[in-house]
## 1
Amino acid sequence: MPDQPLAEDENVGRTLRDDEIVQGVINRLAPRYEGAPTPEIESALQEELVAVGLGEQPAPWVHSTAIEISAGRIVVADSRAQVALEDLPGH
């Protein structure tokens, strides 16, 4: 099955790009929504993720991410995503 590793590599690359997009959305919303009500942040997250072409994300992930944003904590979508530290809120 020589094609299997290539297919897996393509899927990993796509996932990392998606994670970088998710991280960008989080980084844009976090400063604006720190301290905001969780449902408001959940709505903003879903709207922005749909707007960038990723579609709606699982409600449990959106909810926990919204809690972290509201509390002012840094949210990292995937540690492998290529995001500079200075791009994270609060840096």
## 2
Amino acid sequence: MRTYHCVVTSSANDLNYVIDGPSDGRPVLFVHGILTCRAHWLLNLPAFHEAGFRSIAIDLLGHGSSPAPEAEAAYHPDRYVERFCALRELVDAERWFVVGQSLGAALTLNYAMSRPDEVIAHVVTNSHSAFGELDRIRNPASARERAQQMIDGGIDAVMRHPLNPRRARAFNDAQRSEFDDAMLLSQADGIARTMMYTSPHTPLRHRLPDNPVDTLLVAGDREEAFTPAREWVEEHAANFRVERVSATHAVNISAADDFNRIAIEFLNRYP
């Protein structure tokens, strides 16, 4: 397996990313959630590689090796749409598949619904950011409190946070070490800005009844708090298929084999 690692430095795109898989493989963009990084997909990229996909896994701003700009506007979901468009052109993909996890799913859904001509098909996992109740997500006081915890605690707070998947039992020691090496490069203030400037703009229930892109939600049933959101998607979201697996919030890690099989089978339906 050969992995290419580079940083985009153009004015249109400032995200760190890695490319894995055959150069002529079908391209797939992978977007992780908050408090993790591109290494979130360690248990998935080999299976996608084996299936003939070329994976492009990014670091969100403040996460992993991506920068942590101070400007609030840099963190808006619509700015990520611009970055994803620029990255697609950079990797020479006319269209591609997209996979989003948690907050990343909200960003990829916004992208897919804004630029449906660029997305062949789409896979997402449990995402309160995208599918949750509006008043739960848009809580400025709560966002500021969580952000201040990151600023005060620094990288130690980032690594200890319950949403950080480094303690996942699915990781072996080598994989956990690889994850930590990537995650420890994160900047706590950039993650704090993501909490304040990205998350409040992610709820998408008002747009999902008009979703134009074929989308698969691989829902982890062991996260009981996500059940109402999953049921809402099943009833109201257009062009969605839902597959339930025994998994926690980080579906692609806690049930990696099931996620890989279901997601790859879904994407293989599209030429």
